[in-house]
Amino acid sequence: MHFAMPPRKTSRPPPYAVRNARSSFNPQYLIPRDRLRRVVLAILGFLAAVWTLRWMFGGGGEIGYESAVAGSGAPVVIVTVFDEKADKGWVGRVKRNREEYARRHGYATFFNTTSNYNIKTSPLSWSKVPALRHAMTLHPTSTWFWYLDSTALIANPSVPITSHILSPAKLEKHMIVNEPVVPPDSVIKTFANLKGERIDVVVTQDREGLSVESFAVRRGEWAKYFLDAWFDPIYRNYNFQKAEGHALEHIVQWHGTILAKLALVPQSLINSYAKGADPSQQGHYKSGDLVASFPGCDKGGKRSCDEEMKPYFEEIEKRKGAE
């Protein structure tokens, strides 16, 4: 079988091409060099003035604006989303738990309800992802955004999360390397040679997989990509058994650009389970841990977040009184 060969290109243009090019040239359309220079300079000056005004008044490109002020706000913003149907008294106590901690360490807080995010028929737990983007918009100069589920408490308010785990040195010290992303036998493992200053998302895992009750994301262009990828409608409509939790496991294992920015840290550092973990396991809450988490306490039935958290609230008050 023979295939038609494409015509060869030649470095010698046909005579008619040269004649047409010459015949179309008309000196009267040339712009004098001095005038052309003035026009170009005027255009550049106009564009520079527009860019400067947009940058000064916050209407310009987000990248330029962030590069000038990033890191000048609260170092950490604590983000929590509540079900609007939750008990108002309990919601108030959880908010105060975050607010008092934030005031103590110079952080900020961001609270919202699940109904304010358009997640359509997806589980309400998906609302944490747009809530983080929302918080980043309202706090454009902050660095870290710590999502802490409403089913978790800051149990040791004296511990600042910045020096506790978010500093590059602490991340390098504590990150779990060369371990399956999804235990016990995922073939995708955490990278072994990551530097702390390159980490943009900090998560924990329990014996079943990645946990999404308490995790931190560093603000930046990469964070927007990460959150947008996570919130993709394909994943929200896929009907994962654990909704956004399993979706996160999927993108971490299939997208090297995400795994390369992720630090997996021991659960006890930011997400100890007060309920739902074997006391012999490393992730079980011990007195002095930063966070006490009660996963599933908001699912109804015989469990109650307010009742399960009550002794921890009392312990926090005692600790404050002793300081």
From TrEMBL:
It holds the Pfam family Glyco_transf_34. Signal peptide: none annotated. This is Alpha-1,6-mannosyltransferas-like protein subunit. The chain crosses the membrane at residues 39-57. It comes from Delitschia confertaspora ATCC 74209. It comes from the Eukaryota. The keyword Cell membrane does not apply. Belongs to the glycosyltransferase 34 family. Keywords: Glycosyltransferase, Membrane, Transferase, Transmembrane, Transmembrane helix. InterPro entries: Glyco_trans_34 (IPR008630), Nucleotide-diphossugar_trans (IPR029044). GO terms for molecular function: alpha-1,6-mannosyltransferase activity. One of its GO terms (biological process) is protein N-linked glycosylation. One of its GO terms (cellular component) is mannan polymerase complex.
